[in-house]
User: Fold this.
Amino acid sequence: MRSYRKELLFNVPSRRAFINITGQVEECLRESGIREGLVLVNAMHITASVFINDDESGLHRDFEVWLERLAPHEPVSSYRHNVGEDNADAHLKRQVMGREVVVAVTGGKLDFGPWERIFYGEFDGRRRKRVLVKIIGE
Amino acid sequence: MRSYRKELLFNVPSRRAFINITGQVEECLRESGIREGLVLVNAMHITASVFINDDESGLHRDFEVWLERLAPHEPVSSYRHNVGEDNADAHLKRQVMGREVVVAVTGGKLDFGPWERIFYGEFDGRRRKRVLVKIIGE
Amino acid sequence: MRSYRKELLFNVPSRRAFINITGQVEECLRESGIREGLVLVNAMHITASVFINDDESGLHRDFEVWLERLAPHEPVSSYRHNVGEDNADAHLKRQVMGREVVVAVTGGKLDFGPWERIFYGEFDGRRRKRVLVKIIGE
Assistant:
């Protein structure tokens, strides 16, 4: 069994953003040389997500509006976590979108359906954050 | 390390449905001959889910009503994604229910608690769609 | 490839609770002797979750209030699943928080960001329940 590890770095200038990281994960897979196995891609921070969905800007706007309805940022004081912080909503939004994805590796490629793309979801940006790519297989 | 891959095919006649696929995943595991490892089961489409919960029709009706309340299909025009499409709600519902499950394989069996069953969740059916089963181990 | 399996046992005296199980998973990892691979940690019951977030009591109170708003326990009779049961909301809450986490193992440690901690989320306690820890690697 072989394994590979890499951290991807982000410093999003806005509070929230969705960033397509599929190409970066494919580059990791090429570097690893692994042809059969599993890739784990996870946010290393608890106010961010890694998820798989469509690379379509209208949908990303729909996600933003929907998450703000399910777990609004304001009023900041409505959350007990927000003592000297204002990011409680980011912890909640991340639960809806998920921490991680696990993707099959087949024949040296991400084994994807036609529209699957991997995204980093930032819910409390304006600081340096990391995503972990771990690949095991052979 | 050994690996196994299979696609399960679906063509659900309705827009939404929950289908118990536990037996199909068990059949894959038998075919693989793998006795210790992990099974990844994921939707290959971004308007569908794979999840683990109870095989109980009342609960499935509760899921349907609840998801429609969290991410309503109508009004279709309220979503920016719905330009020539009407499935934005399906992309959102799939995030709540999840894309994938990872299940332990122990002694050649799915290592499950008493009521765990694997479901395919369709949120935009009436077309051909796929689920990927990838098993690694030995 | 090596594999390791252990069940963690819980009997939460209240209906709902969040319990930090990071130390127990680290103990499993030490016992396994595995240095590179993946850990799967999953609830074996369908009214409970395993998730990764912050070990902060204010945030846990925010999760409790938020989940009760998204999937209220009362009125119990509003759920079709609740025929002789009262835990339909627990099945829904578990979908929001997730069944499982997959964590990278690097150099014999859980490969975590600074604030990542693993929690057992109980939504229908007052009975004996289990969490599965499965580790594969070498």
Observations:
- The beta strands of chain C are 2-10, 17-20, 36-43, 48-53, 100-106, 109-110, 117-122, 129-137.
- The first strand of chain C starts at residue 2 and ends at 10.
- The radius of gyration of chain C is 16 Å.
- DSSP finds three helices and eight strands in chain C.
